[in-house]
Amino acid sequence: MSKSTVGLLGGGQLAMMLAQAAVPLGIKTLCIESQHASPASHYTDVWVAETLDEALIDKLINTCDVITLENENVASAIASQIESVGKLAPGTTALNTSADRLVEKEFINAQGIATAPFVAISHAQDLAKAADELGFPFLVKTRRFGYDGKGQSKISNNEQLATFIRDYDGSPSVAEGLVDFDCEVSLIAARNPQGECVYYPLVQNEHREGILRVSHAPHDNTLLSDKAQALMQTLLKALAYVGVLTIEFFVCGETLVINEIAPRVHNSGHWTIEGAHTSQFENHLRAVCGLPLGSAKAKGYSAMINCIGTLPSPSVVADEPLAHLHDYHKSARPNRKVGHITVNGEDKGQVDEVTKRLRALV
Fold this sequence. Notes:
The protein contains twelve helices and 17 strands. It has helices spanning 13-22, 54-63, 76-83, 92-98, 101-110, 124-134, 158-167, 222-238, 272-275, 280-288, 314-318, 348-359, and strands spanning 5-9, 28-33, 45-48, 66-69, 118-121, 138-142, 152-155, 173-177, 183-191, 197-199, 203-208, 211-217, 243-252, 255-262, 301-308, 323-327, 337-345. The strands form three sheets. Strands 9, 10, 11, 12, 13, 14, 15, 16 and 17 form a nine-stranded antiparallel β-sheet that branches.
C-alpha cells in the first residue's frame, strides 16, 4: 500500500528537493526543522522545533504515513520511537551504522568489503598506535557529526602527532590510513520494501578541502560499475534497506575501496534531477512509500557543480542553455553549499565546455 504523507526529519536542501519531487507524485510532505526560513520551508509545511521530544514525534507519527530523513545524525531514541510503529525508512540499523565512522567501517569489513585501514581512537595513546600501524600521513576523524571536511585532521609527521596528542580532548575518533587512489566515484541505489532495486550510473567526484565540488555522470566503466553494484547489493541486503543509499568509493586500478556510506539522498546525485529519467529524490519517495521505482538511467551526460559560499548570477547561468541553477535559499557564508548547477546534454564535449565556464563562477 502506498503512502500519501511523508514526514521529513530536517529541513535543509535535501528535504527541499524531496518536497519538490513529491508534488508530481501526489505525495504530501511535512518537515520538522530547528530553524525558521529553512530551505524546505519554501516548498512544504515545516514544524519548527529546537528539540525533538517524544510528544512531538508522536504527533508526527500520527500525522504521517512514513517518516524519512535528510541526514543520519538522528538521535537513536527518536529513530527507535518511529521504527517501533513501523513508519521509519530507512531503519535504525542503517542509521546507527552510518552515523558512527568506526561502526560503519567495522560493519563494511564484516561483509567482506574493503575500507581504508583504520584504528579506533579513544585515548591519547591510541594516536601513537595509529602512527605505528598506519604510518604518516594519516587522518583523524571524529566518529560522529563530521561532514564536508569538518572534524578531520591530517597528521603528517611526529611533530604534528605530538601537538595533536597534547591537544586531544578525548573525543571518540577513528584514524584512517590514506588510500592511494586514481579517482573517487559514488554509486546511488534505491530499494523499496518489495526488494526492487535500481542503480544509477557511477559518478566521478572531485573534492577540495573535504567538500564535493563537481560530479560527472556517467563514469563509463562497465567493470567498475558491475563491481560497485555487487557491493551495493550486499549492503542493501545486510541492512534490510528501504530508500536511497549512497556509497562513496576510492578507485584503485580495478579495485574499489569504500570510503563511506550515506543512508539518504546524496550531493553526488543532484545531477539526476535533470540528468536521469527519475531523480534520486523521486525514487527515494517511491521507495519509502512502497511504490514501483522509476528508471535510473542517465539522459545523456551531466555535471553537477556545487555553489560554495555564494550563488552566481541567475542570468549568467541562464545564458548557458544546458545549465540549470538550483537555489537553496541560504545566506552566503564561506564553505557553505548555497546551491548547485546541473549541466546536461547529449554531447559530452559540449557538457564539459559549459561546465568549465561555469566552474570559473563558483
